[in-house]
Predict the 3D structure of the following.
Amino acid sequence: MTDIASSTPENSMASAPALTIEHLSAGYRNRPIIKNLSLMPMQEGQVVSLIGPNAAGKSTLLRAIAGLLPATGSVRLGDVEILGLPLVDQARHITYTPQELPQQIALTVLETVMGALQVSRENRQDVDAAMQKAIDVLERLGISHLAMEQLDRLSGGQRQLTSLAQTLVREPKVLLLDEPISALDLHYQLRVMKEVREIAAEKRMIVLVVLHDLSIAARWSDRIVVLANGAVVAEGTPQQAITPEVLSDVYQVKARVESCSQGSFTVMVDDVV
Ligand SMILES: Nc1ncnc2c1ncn2[C@@H]1O[C@H](COP(=O)(O)OP(=O)(O)OP(=O)(O)O)[C@@H](O)[C@H]1O
């Protein structure tokens, strides 16, 4: 087995670990939600969007991959089996950002983001490096002006951006994002998707993101997974996965998929079925 955390950039490039999910089942008490689910391997640098109706099991799937729910099956990063590892070891590879906004604690945004790096306060160099990293992420997300604001004085959208900064600063190998743009205005929705995509490519991260806006998912994802009733109903490029037939089956809407001038496409919903 390969120890991913201790591998050098050279040999990790050579082995290019993919995230492979096979025969995954998970749920709550006596309530199975995810049933024997397998996905195409997700490659380094890829952004994969998970879409589907309310209660389809999207958050449950992310929590199961992150090791936060009892699950059976296999979640492998390269040849390392992640499922069943102690949470602290799993967290070295995978970071999950939940749908819920962070607690309104009395820390500044900068302190909150730096806190995610868990450096010792004794070591001045580490603290300085952590601060620089945190500031860089805040700048990328366009919220460096909030660095000295207290978390409990922020709006919902500002707290969501802080939560994302807290996750990104750790540069995990696998990033699981549950509706990261649900509280954001148009500018920040696009800004976040653009930055997540760029950071994934730069840092060779694997990103699995739950989104409800299909046009945004189509524009910013390499691949789409459509989930309904805890099972995959379509998977592939945005063009392959988001079709009028799938939208009718899964969301019960009459929809068109229209090409845009920039090569992406928009989903136009005409009516409910
Ligand atoms: N803690 C829990 N205990 C029991 N059942 C739960 C729990 N959390 C979620 N569920 C159930 O699991 C199913 C899937 O929920 P999940 O939150 O994964 O769906 P989702 O696709 O993320 O939905 P949404 O788009 O509405 O956020 C739902 O039927 C829900 O009621």
Observations:
- Confidence is low (pLDDT under 50) at residues 1-14.
